[in-house]
Design a protein that fits this description.
Number of domains: 1
CATH topology: Rossmann fold
Radius of gyration: 19 Å
Helix content: 25-40%
Shape: globular
Structural class: alpha/beta
CATH architecture: 3-Layer(aba) Sandwich
Oligomer: single chain
CATH superfamily: NAD(P)-binding Rossmann-like Domain
Largest sheet: 7 strands, parallel
Number of helices: 7
Number of strands: 7
CATH class: Alpha Beta
Order of helices and strands: EHEHEHEHEHEHHE
Strand content: 5-15%
Distance between the termini: 38 Å
Length: 281
């Protein structure tokens, strides 16, 4: 394992390689082909890590591999479902020749944008299976990945786990952000999403305390809203609530992620780093 995430290297700023603080490290990223996944992968790759992605599909994998190759490292996609621990165990065997990971980023998740085509329910009619399905990926899936890959870090004597949370781990969604979207029933941000992310923050603290003596650091990176194809009225409402006056760009997550993954944060564990432009202030 590279020393970049173990806490064994010199302090940041003491050597000229600090621009690639994860050089030689192996990173595992779940959900690399999702909305935020490519930016998580390229952030690690830009810092020098080779990355193995874990996803249920493969759309966009070739393009991501090319982008990573341009950064001088490699990306390899492995098909597995974080909600199915057995598939993760099988995947770990397939990449066992690479050795234990230095970094695990739990980025796989289910969310529901206010898409007119999306299935909507009144809160009292939300199907139990839909609620559980979100928790199975966002929370149980992260637990599985920590069991499978985090345990390898523990046994190797170090590593960094970064769980991707959300500002909705800390606060409830504002219904007024969505009330201009037409449809009956009206759009509601799923209750399971915030519940799963809040649970993920506790899971972060749990493993930070459990595996700290083994040299494994566990932190959460909680983004605010990230700019995509949101409509102008949503953008206006949302940005009016943000002290910095805008949504995040995906690149805004790169520095915080590398900080948590590398020895730049070697004395930081059990922490939730909110990258939300001050929204939760």
């Amino acid at each position: 394992m590279a020393s970049a995430a173990t806490g064994s290297s010199p302090a940041v700023g003491s050597d000229p390689a600090q621009s690639r603080p994860l050089a030689g490290a192996l990173g595992i990223v779940t959900g690399p082909l999702g909305r935020l996944g490519p930016s998580l992968v390229t952030a690690l790759a830009g810092a020098g890590a080779d990355v193995v992605g874990v996803d249920v599909g493969d759309r966009g994998a070739d393009e991501l591999a090319e982008a990573v190759a341009d950064l001088g490292t490699t990306f390899r996609l492995e098909r597995a479902d974080v909600a199915d621990k057995a598939s993760l165990l099988a995947m770990r065997e397939r990449v066992s020749e690479l050795g234990p990971p230095a970094v695990l980023v739990n980025g796989a998740g289910i969310d529901q944008p206010p898409d007119a085509a999306a299935v909507r329910h009144r809160i009292e009619d939300v199907p139990t299976e839909a609620f559980r399905g979100t928790l199975d990926v966002n929370l149980v899936g992260a637990f599985h990945a920590i069991q499978v890959f985090g345990a390898a870090m523990r046994d190797a004597g170090g590593g960094s786990i970064v769980n991707i949370g959300s500002l909705y781990a800390s606060i409830a969604p504002e219904p007024a952000f969505y009330e201009h979207f037409e449809g009956d029933p009206p759009f509601l941000k799923p209750a399971a999403y915030g519940a799963s992310k809040a649970g993920l923050i506790h899971l972060t603290r749990y493993f930070a305390r459990l595996w700290g003596p083994n040299g494994v650091r566990v932190n959460a990176l909680s983004p605010g809203g990230v700019r995509g194809d949101q409509d102008p009225e949503f953008l206006r409402k949302y940005c009016a609530r943000v002290p910095l006056g805008r949504m995040a760009e995906s690149e805004d997550l790169a520095g915080p992620l590398v900080f948590l993954a590398s020895d730049a944060s070697r004395y930081v564990t059990g922490h939730e780093l909110r990258v939300d432009g001050g929204f939760t202030a």
